Amino acid sequence: MKEPDEDWLGIVRKSGVKCWEVKACGKEDCPAFGSTDARCWLVAGTMCGGKPQGKFAQKFGSCVECDVYQKALGLDPVAEIYEQIVTLVHSLRESRGQLKAMATRDLLTGAYNRNYFNEVIKVEAERTKRYGSTFSILIVDVDRFKQINDTYGHLHGDGILRECAQLLQRSLRSADILVRFGGDEFLILAPETDCGKSGRSWRGSGRKSPAGMRSSGATTTGSP
Question: Which residues, in sequence order, are CB contacts of 133 under 8 Å at separation 6+?
Protein backbone atom coordinates (compact mmCIF):
# COMPACT_ATOMS: atom_id res chain seq x y z
CA MET A 1 0.00 0.00 0.00
CA LYS A 2 1.41 3.38 -1.00
CA GLU A 3 1.83 6.18 1.46
CA PRO A 4 -0.39 9.19 0.70
CA ASP A 5 2.57 11.33 -0.39
CA GLU A 6 4.57 8.60 -2.12
CA ASP A 7 4.19 10.18 -5.57
CA TRP A 8 4.60 13.77 -4.43
CA LEU A 9 7.40 14.45 -6.92
CA GLY A 10 5.15 13.42 -9.78
CA ILE A 11 2.83 16.39 -9.35
CA VAL A 12 5.60 18.95 -9.64
CA ARG A 13 6.15 20.65 -13.00
CA LYS A 14 8.81 18.96 -15.14
CA SER A 15 11.15 21.47 -16.69
CA GLY A 16 13.43 19.10 -18.57
CA VAL A 17 16.54 21.01 -17.42
CA LYS A 18 19.44 18.68 -16.69
CA CYS A 19 22.49 20.02 -14.86
CA TRP A 20 24.96 17.77 -16.64
CA GLU A 21 23.71 19.05 -20.00
CA VAL A 22 23.58 22.72 -19.02
CA LYS A 23 27.10 22.57 -17.58
CA ALA A 24 28.46 20.20 -20.26
CA CYS A 25 29.60 18.13 -17.30
CA GLY A 26 31.62 14.96 -17.73
CA LYS A 27 31.76 13.89 -14.09
CA GLU A 28 30.22 10.45 -14.50
CA ASP A 29 30.80 9.63 -10.83
CA CYS A 30 28.48 12.47 -9.80
CA PRO A 31 25.18 11.07 -8.45
CA ALA A 32 23.24 13.59 -10.57
CA PHE A 33 25.03 12.70 -13.82
CA GLY A 34 22.66 11.17 -16.36
CA SER A 35 19.59 11.89 -14.24
CA THR A 36 16.44 12.81 -16.17
CA ASP A 37 15.10 14.81 -13.22
CA ALA A 38 15.81 18.54 -13.10
CA ARG A 39 16.32 18.62 -9.36
CA CYS A 40 20.07 18.21 -8.97
CA TRP A 41 19.80 20.49 -5.93
CA LEU A 42 17.94 17.72 -4.08
CA VAL A 43 20.73 15.21 -4.75
CA ALA A 44 23.29 14.84 -1.96
CA GLY A 45 26.94 14.45 -2.88
CA THR A 46 26.85 16.19 -6.26
CA MET A 47 30.28 17.05 -7.65
CA CYS A 48 29.67 20.75 -8.35
CA GLY A 49 32.91 22.72 -8.04
CA GLY A 50 35.02 19.59 -8.23
CA LYS A 51 34.24 18.27 -4.76
CA PRO A 52 31.30 16.41 -3.19
CA GLN A 53 28.56 18.74 -1.97
CA GLY A 54 26.27 18.08 0.96
CA LYS A 55 22.49 17.97 1.14
CA PHE A 56 20.33 20.86 -0.04
CA ALA A 57 20.27 22.45 3.41
CA GLN A 58 24.07 22.63 3.32
CA LYS A 59 24.47 23.80 -0.27
CA PHE A 60 21.34 25.99 -0.38
CA GLY A 61 23.10 29.25 -1.25
CA SER A 62 25.15 27.96 -4.16
CA CYS A 63 22.24 25.94 -5.59
CA VAL A 64 19.79 28.85 -5.57
CA GLU A 65 22.33 31.06 -7.33
CA CYS A 66 23.21 28.38 -9.90
CA ASP A 67 22.01 28.93 -13.47
CA VAL A 68 20.64 25.36 -13.52
CA TYR A 69 18.27 26.18 -10.66
CA GLN A 70 17.29 29.49 -12.20
CA LYS A 71 16.68 27.97 -15.63
CA ALA A 72 14.63 25.10 -14.21
CA LEU A 73 12.26 27.46 -12.41
CA GLY A 74 12.11 29.96 -15.26
CA LEU A 75 12.58 32.89 -12.84
CA ASP A 76 8.97 32.36 -11.77
CA PRO A 77 8.60 33.48 -8.12
CA VAL A 78 5.52 31.28 -7.60
CA ALA A 79 7.33 28.27 -9.00
CA GLU A 80 10.30 28.98 -6.75
CA ILE A 81 8.13 29.15 -3.62
CA TYR A 82 6.48 25.90 -4.64
CA GLU A 83 9.88 24.33 -5.23
CA GLN A 84 11.06 25.37 -1.78
CA ILE A 85 8.00 23.62 -0.31
CA VAL A 86 8.88 20.52 -2.33
CA THR A 87 12.44 20.73 -1.00
CA LEU A 88 11.17 20.92 2.58
CA VAL A 89 8.95 17.86 2.05
CA HIS A 90 11.89 16.02 0.49
CA SER A 91 14.13 16.86 3.46
CA LEU A 92 11.48 15.76 5.97
CA ARG A 93 10.94 12.46 4.16
CA GLU A 94 14.67 11.83 4.02
CA SER A 95 15.08 12.62 7.71
CA ARG A 96 12.21 10.31 8.58
CA GLY A 97 13.84 7.51 6.62
CA GLN A 98 17.16 8.09 8.37
CA LEU A 99 15.54 8.07 11.80
CA LYS A 100 13.71 4.83 10.97
CA ALA A 101 16.96 3.24 9.82
CA MET A 102 18.74 4.37 13.00
CA ALA A 103 15.98 2.84 15.12
CA THR A 104 15.97 -0.55 13.36
CA ARG A 105 19.44 -1.01 11.84
CA ASP A 106 22.87 -1.69 13.28
CA LEU A 107 24.96 1.31 12.23
CA LEU A 108 28.15 -0.71 11.75
CA THR A 109 26.95 -3.62 9.64
CA GLY A 110 23.60 -2.48 8.22
CA ALA A 111 21.90 -5.60 9.60
CA TYR A 112 18.77 -5.21 11.71
CA ASN A 113 19.41 -4.51 15.39
CA ARG A 114 18.17 -6.20 18.54
CA ASN A 115 15.31 -3.73 19.01
CA TYR A 116 13.91 -4.64 15.61
CA PHE A 117 14.35 -8.35 16.33
CA ASN A 118 12.46 -8.04 19.62
CA GLU A 119 9.48 -6.60 17.73
CA VAL A 120 9.49 -8.90 14.71
CA ILE A 121 9.90 -12.08 16.76
CA LYS A 122 6.63 -11.34 18.55
CA VAL A 123 4.84 -11.05 15.22
CA GLU A 124 6.45 -14.21 13.87
CA ALA A 125 5.62 -16.16 17.02
CA GLU A 126 1.96 -15.12 16.80
CA ARG A 127 1.81 -16.01 13.10
CA THR A 128 3.38 -19.40 13.78
CA LYS A 129 0.94 -20.14 16.59
CA ARG A 130 -2.07 -19.06 14.56
CA TYR A 131 -1.30 -20.98 11.37
CA GLY A 132 0.61 -23.94 12.78
CA SER A 133 3.71 -23.09 10.75
CA THR A 134 7.37 -23.11 11.74
CA PHE A 135 10.28 -20.74 11.97
CA SER A 136 13.93 -21.17 12.85
CA ILE A 137 16.50 -18.97 14.50
CA LEU A 138 20.10 -19.52 13.50
CA ILE A 139 22.92 -18.14 15.63
CA VAL A 140 26.11 -17.31 13.77
CA ASP A 141 29.37 -16.02 15.20
CA VAL A 142 32.85 -15.29 13.88
CA ASP A 143 35.61 -17.73 14.76
CA ARG A 144 38.42 -16.29 16.90
CA PHE A 145 37.01 -12.76 16.69
CA LYS A 146 38.59 -11.66 19.97
CA GLN A 147 41.96 -12.80 18.65
CA ILE A 148 41.40 -10.73 15.50
CA ASN A 149 40.63 -7.63 17.57
CA ASP A 150 43.60 -8.17 19.88
CA THR A 151 46.02 -8.77 17.00
CA TYR A 152 44.90 -6.31 14.34
CA GLY A 153 42.84 -3.77 16.29
CA HIS A 154 39.15 -2.93 16.56
CA LEU A 155 38.97 -1.01 13.28
CA HIS A 156 40.06 -4.13 11.44
CA GLY A 157 37.56 -6.11 13.50
CA ASP A 158 34.80 -3.71 12.47
CA GLY A 159 35.69 -4.30 8.83
CA ILE A 160 35.46 -8.06 9.38
CA LEU A 161 31.99 -7.67 10.90
CA ARG A 162 30.80 -5.57 7.95
CA GLU A 163 32.13 -8.12 5.49
CA CYS A 164 30.56 -10.99 7.40
CA ALA A 165 27.18 -9.23 7.40
CA GLN A 166 27.42 -8.76 3.62
CA LEU A 167 28.34 -12.42 3.10
CA LEU A 168 25.47 -13.57 5.27
CA GLN A 169 22.96 -11.26 3.61
CA ARG A 170 23.89 -12.51 0.14
CA SER A 171 23.29 -16.12 1.20
CA LEU A 172 19.81 -15.52 2.65
CA ARG A 173 16.37 -15.77 1.11
CA SER A 174 14.36 -12.59 0.71
CA ALA A 175 12.08 -13.65 3.60
CA ASP A 176 14.96 -14.23 6.03
CA ILE A 177 15.97 -11.50 8.47
CA LEU A 178 19.59 -10.88 9.47
CA VAL A 179 20.15 -9.36 12.91
CA ARG A 180 23.35 -8.29 14.60
CA PHE A 181 22.60 -9.40 18.13
CA GLY A 182 25.79 -8.08 19.70
CA GLY A 183 29.55 -8.32 19.38
CA ASP A 184 30.35 -10.91 16.73
CA GLU A 185 26.98 -12.67 17.06
CA PHE A 186 24.38 -12.57 14.30
CA LEU A 187 20.91 -14.07 14.34
CA ILE A 188 18.98 -15.20 11.29
CA LEU A 189 15.22 -15.46 11.56
CA ALA A 190 14.08 -17.92 8.90
CA PRO A 191 10.29 -18.22 8.47
CA GLU A 192 8.84 -21.52 7.24
CA THR A 193 12.11 -23.32 7.96
CA ASP A 194 12.68 -26.36 10.16
CA CYS A 195 16.42 -26.64 10.73
CA GLY A 196 15.79 -29.37 13.33
CA LYS A 197 14.92 -31.84 10.59
CA SER A 198 18.15 -31.00 8.83
CA GLY A 199 20.67 -31.31 11.64
CA ARG A 200 20.17 -27.94 13.41
CA SER A 201 22.90 -26.23 11.42
CA TRP A 202 23.40 -23.74 8.66
CA ARG A 203 24.51 -26.55 6.37
CA GLY A 204 21.48 -28.63 7.30
CA SER A 205 19.08 -25.79 6.62
CA GLY A 206 20.10 -25.70 2.98
CA ARG A 207 22.27 -22.60 3.20
CA LYS A 208 26.01 -22.36 2.77
CA SER A 209 27.87 -21.10 5.84
CA PRO A 210 30.53 -18.53 4.96
CA ALA A 211 34.09 -19.51 5.82
CA GLY A 212 35.25 -18.47 9.28
CA MET A 213 31.76 -18.61 10.76
CA ARG A 214 30.02 -21.22 12.84
CA SER A 215 26.32 -21.62 13.44
CA SER A 216 23.68 -23.41 15.47
CA GLY A 217 19.93 -23.21 15.27
CA ALA A 218 16.58 -24.03 16.82
CA THR A 219 13.09 -24.36 15.37
CA THR A 220 9.70 -23.38 16.78
CA THR A 221 6.49 -25.00 15.56
CA GLY A 222 3.07 -23.58 16.34
CA SER A 223 -0.29 -25.27 16.83
CA PRO A 224 -3.38 -23.44 15.56
Answer: 127, 191, 192, 221, 222
